[in-house]
Amino acid sequence: METLKVDLGTRSYPIYIGENLLNQAALVQPFVTGKQVLIVTNETIAPLYLEKVQNLFSKFQTKSVILPDGEEFKNLEVLNQIFDTLLEQRFDRQVTLVALGGGVVGDMTGFAAACYQRGVAFIQIPTTLLAQVDSSVGGKTGINHPLGKNMIGAFYQPQCVIIDTKTLDTLDDKQFSSGLAEVIKYGLITDFAFFKWLENNITALLKRDAEALKFTISRSCQNKAQVVAEDELENGRRVILNLGHTFGHAIETGMGYGKVLHGEAVAIGINLAAQFSCQRAWITEAQVQQINTLLETMRLPTKIPPEMNMEKMLQLMQVDKKVIAGQIRLVLLKAIGQAEIVESNATEIRVVLK
Fold first, then answer.
1. Nearest residue to 291 via CA among 330, 254, 322, 332
2. Nearest CA to 194 among 6, 336, 302, 2?
């Protein structure tokens, strides 16, 4: 097992990475604040891992809530199922919520924890690659709105993150590739050596080699933890973690939540950001192709869906958390491994979206 730390002073917490961690009750039980535990999972994950996780908390008063699976259910109505269970069971301010699942479960459980009785403890147990390398770390929680993705939420840090790499054995190829988009992002924004490692280890990763996977997850979490430690509330540098996301979120919203996976939308957004960076003469056309080759080899899309026209994209990009005073903030690449936050406008963006 490897242990990393997200260094946030009194809100610091560990990330545990290893195989079969869902069998280690002694690892997770110290992070339960009281005697009550609510496990939040979904219909896909519950048959696979719920019983195991219930056993981790067998010494506590434990209940579970099973949500429908999918990005389209990341909304207020479904969030209320968590609050309904908490209130029906008369759980108090010492309850600990446990997020067992992918990014949707993690985001919703964290947001529920931030809101219930003005804040209770929660633990992240991510079961998808995307959640393990990205959404479970850093304290971003929230839900979607029909007009914009993740527009309702809170920064709220977990007590710990338990990454059992064996849970990836049951992840389908499409979801696995979706997670790789966020992995590639880290190489592009801050870690050129990691980007080169990914290029050289594509085959091992796609075969889900255990050592390659563990290194990928660890290196990704290290990169994210470092950025989050520098800027927890995204007032500055943390924005670089959104490479491809402003374009990607617009695609997810415009296509209808769940139609395009988050990582797939981010991959398309990364391609657009690379083209934009080339337009500014920061990276070369050859480097744009190098980035796209890696994305496509990881079985990720790079083209905007034909259903998304330019004006629809621009309209949705205006409803984004990174828009300030009408200016769209984008993350571009000064080089592979070096990100830059820029302000742009509709005229400039139209050239890239053609």
1. 332
2. 336
Counting as low any pLDDT under 70, the low residues of the chain are none
- Catalogue the active-site residues: 118, 140, 182, 224, 234, 238, 242, 245, 249, 262
**Are 13 and 5 a contacting pair, CB within 8 Å?**
yes
What's the confidence (pLDDT) of residue 262? 97
List of residues 6+ apart from 286 with CB closer than 8 A: none
> Got the DSSP string for 193-218?
HHHHHHHHTHHHHHTT-HHHHHHHHH
**Nearest CA among 265, 268, 295, 287 for reference residue 333:** 287
> What domains can you pick out in the chain, each with its CATH number?
2-170 (3.40.50.1970), 173-353 (1.20.1090.10)
In this prediction, residue 193 carries a pLDDT of 98
The pLDDT value recorded for residue 336 is 98
| pLDDT of res. 83 | 98
Cβ–Cβ under 8 Å, residues 283 and 336: yes
Q: Which two tokens stand for residue 199?
A: 């290029």
pLDDT at 352: 87
